[in-house]
Amino acid sequence: MTETSTRKLISSGSPFEKAAGYSRAVVDGDWCFVSGTTGYDYATMKMPESAGTQTMNALLTIESALKEAGFAMSDVVRARYIVTDREYVGDVFAELGRVFGEVRPAATMIVADLIREEMKVEIEVTAKRQG
């Protein structure tokens, strides 16, 4: 088996994936790389107002992609968080702590603009299949 034969692409059904030419996640062997994920409810394509709810939606989308790929949130070893305003950090931390409090991946939080005004949070994770 060649190394490339283990590559699998995961889609969340977001119209942005085809337009921008990316996958929600890429599995390569025991690794899963999840693209930056914002807080859209992809079933309705609506963005909630609060940073906390956007964080929760992003984490649910990530969890769904990981599950489809055969991984769990507990497999996450690296996370990057982008928020558009320092004022959102408390609400974002509340959701992150609920999901990653025991997992405790290596993480970085950045304050920066995102591509659409309504986006307040973007989360990217890397997971490694355990044992």
TrEMBL record:
<dbReference type="Pfam" id="PF01042">
    <property type="entry name" value="Ribonuc_L-PSP"/>
</dbReference>
<dbReference type="InterPro" id="IPR006175">
    <property type="entry name" value="YjgF/YER057c/UK114"/>
</dbReference>
<dbReference type="InterPro" id="IPR035959">
    <property type="entry name" value="RutC-like_sf"/>
</dbReference>
<protein>
    <submittedName>
        <fullName>Putative endoribonuclease L-PSP</fullName>
    </submittedName>
</protein>
